[in-house]
Amino acid sequence: MSQSNDPNNLNDQSSVDNQIDEPIKNPNEPHRPEKKERKLTALQSGLIGGAVAAVLISGVGYAVTTANDTDDQISTEEVQSIVDEAVSSAQADNTASSVQSTSLDVTTDVSETVANVQDSVVSVVNMTESVSTYDLFGFTSPTQEESTTESSELETSSEGSGVVYKVDGDTAYVVTNNHVIDGADAINIIMADGTQVEAEVVGSDPWTDLAVLEISSDVVTTVAEFGDSDSLKVGEPAIAIGSPLGSEYATTVTQGIISGLDRSVPVDIDGDGTSDWVANVIQTDAAINPGNSGGALLNAAGQVIGINSMKVSSDQVEGMGFAIPAGEVQTIIGELEANGEIVRPELGVSMVDLNRVSLDYQSQNLQLPDDVDGGVYIAEVSAGSAAEAAGLQADDVIVEFAGEAVTDSASLRQALYQQKSDASVEVSFYRNGELQTATVQLQPQNNSSATQ
């Protein structure tokens, strides 16, 4: 039988505000286009200078030789007109040459890289059933139940992106985000050439926001290669490919740089407005828009270094997109291929962030020291759980787990999910104001359980 307490103003979820400390640009500061200094090369200066000199010499010579003939004399205005025309022509020729050279450089650096991998990036269409009810006269609000008929059809609910990363015989594997396929009754894949094929879910994981799909390998022409996300450096090039706003804009390419590494971003898994998890991600300023989720983030060699997952959406912030590192992606999709799920350890408690427990309850019931301002309050201990076996009780407040400080539910999950499902770990907690320690033998997570 489980233990449970219900303190005043207590909710069952953590309350970390799902926000990021964002750099704020002063909205009152006017936009000032960056001034670019224009410099001419020595060759360009020589060409223009030669043209001007030639015009001046010929013009002056003509004026001198005709000085005694007032009817044929060239005016100063005509000389200036000839000079202006020559200079403009020389500048136009050199500008065209510069543009051509720049285009060649871009083709070498980006276009060829994209061409080698672009066909491995696909659109993922989340299809859900739409049920319509009609009476015998075709109305959708029948008055008599026996006179109604129902019809259902699949319609597009949402769209995202995915990456073909493996072919094994007749089967090809696609990685995408869990939130892209969540709630789908069917999933369609649209290849880069427009070919459509049905997909089956191999496995998915909401905590890392990854999912693996399988499709027929007959439609696959290109398979992406993973790169080493651990060796990335801030400032190196990054290329994002995906389907922003849906398959109409499939295989859209944007370019930027790696803006940051090992960023910790709070994530709301269950949609209640509070943080449930902290994702460690790559930050990039390559544009990542709705529909890009599940697409590829590439390095300059065309290798997948991350799976695009989310962005900061704010009027005050631009260029903050995030991708799941390739190293983590490969670990998760390997387990999803093998088991169809990620087996994680379970503690067996219903937990609440300490800052969501009323101050009166903390003072009267928990009797915590004044310097304790963070932790996880245990609202309930499940019968037969690892926590119960270790002696943990309702009203205990966990402040450390496996040597990691616990400040809220997200940090406890982070520390818990780093352990093996049968690991033994030390837990520090307060009970009746006293700090105590217990050893917990973790158990594999029961997916039907609401505890952690």
From TrEMBL:
PDZ domain location, by residue? 356-415
What's a Gene Ontology MF term here? serine-type endopeptidase activity
| Keyword Hydrolase among record annotations | yes
- Compositionally biased spans, kind Polar residues: 1-18
Keyword annotations for this protein, in alphabetical order, are: Hydrolase, Membrane, Protease, Serine protease, Transmembrane, Transmembrane helix
Q: Where are the transmembrane segments?
A: 42-64
- Please give the residue ranges the record annotates as the region Disordered: 1-37, 138-161
The organism's place on the tree of life at top rank = Bacteria
Q: List where this protein forms a coiled coil.
A: none
Gene3D superfamilies found in the cross-reference section: 2.30.42.10, Trypsin-like serine proteases
Give residue spans, biased composition: Basic and acidic residues: 22-37
Query: Which residue intervals are annotated with compositional bias (Low complexity) in the record?
Result: 140-159
Instruction: Name the Pfam families on file.
Output: PDZ_2, Trypsin_2
Q: Which family does it belong to?
A: Belongs to the peptidase S1C family.
**Record-given protein name:** Trypsin-like peptidase domain-containing protein
Recorded source organism is Aerococcus urinaeequi
